[in-house]
Structure formats: C-alpha cells, structure tokens
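Cont'd.
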Amino acid sequence: EVQLVESGGGLLQPGGSLRLSCVASGFTFSSYEMHWVRQAPGKGLEWVSYISSSGRTIYYADSVKGRFTISRDNAKNSLYLQMNSLRVEDMAVYYCARATYYYESSGYDGEYFHHWGQGTLVTVSS
Amino acid sequence: SSEVTQDPAVSVALGQTVRITCQGDSLRSYSASWYQQKPGQAPVVVIFGENNRPSGIPDRFSGSRSGNTASLTITGAQAEDEADYYCHSRDSSGNHQVFGGGTKLTVL
C-alpha cells in the first residue's frame, strides 16, 4: 500500500523558517516525481513545487520561488520542503503528492496525483 | 491567479446529471485531471486524461474535452458526491502545475 506521511508543520511568526518532511512507503520512491501542494484555510488547492525522480529538475510556483527549497533523499524515501521567510499567506495545509505521468493516444499528456499524504498544517501568525 | 478557471458552485438534484467545467488555454496542449475533496480530507483523483478512471472510482464519473475546456460529468449524482471538485493541468509553459479554483457541488 502506498503511503505518504508528512510532518514538520507548526506555528511560527512571519519571517520564520520551517522544514517539512514526507516519508514514502509502499513503492519505489526513487522512480517517481514528487510535488508539494498546499491549501490555505477555506481556499483551493495551490501547486507549490516539483522535483524529478533524480532530484536534478526542480520547479517552483512564483509565489514561493526564492524562499522555498524542495529536495529529496532517495536512500531515505523522503521528500523535503525548506520554507524560509514565511509570510501570513503561506499559512496552509501542505500535502506531498506522488505524480503519475500518462500519455494518451490522442497525443495529449499530463500527470495526475494519485497518492497524497494526509497533510501537515503550517500556521504563520504574529 | 489560476490559469484554469472553474465555476465556483454548481448544484444538482439527487439522481440527475451534472457537468463541471474547466477552461484555460493550456488545456489545448495538455490533459486535465479531476479531484474530489471532502471536508478535512486529502483530494482524491476521480478522472485523469480525457476519460480515465482510477480503480475504485464509480463509473458515474466521466470526463471529456473540447478545445480549451475539460469537463467532469457525474451521471446519476449521489448524496456522497457532494464535495469540492478541482481540475488540474499544466500551465502554458508546461513546467508548472495549475489547479482550478474549485467547484463546490451541492446535491439537492
């Protein structure tokens, strides 16, 4: 059974730092691309960051670029999100998600998030 | 702001059919997936690509696409289908992911 378990959330003041972790089990972690997705209280889903299976390719949403750093340790089956210079608007439940790529005969492709963690809450407040 | 847009709320009578749509220029190039989210729970994928259902998703859920629009259709909506639904795709660059703002489905 695929499991993703996030940890590291908490309460902190604006300008603070936090490191989130996501431990994976039930699949070959090193073979899958991973993402962080967040959801502010009462709001919709927002994609945060992507890391390739090897860790060599990384992307960030504009809202977190330069402040957040995604990384992974395939030997430890773990995904990380280092969050610096936190703002009130970063307050959210943070989910790690495993991406599955697909290609359709119509020529279109994409990825979907088949597996999600339970989320970890980050609260930013003065 | 999201590069794919959804209607904020839709309602459907129990047992009837409802369509939830997602529009965006990137949908002309990339496929979309759809997620159901109930309060306090992580999202669950119900459709990926044009019309692919993961195992365990009822066949009353179906997808389609036309031009810059992806659609999720629930045929014979049940009370347990009341939830928020999000579409998801890539942005125009192809490197970033985007979610629609979500559609709150009410089953009357």
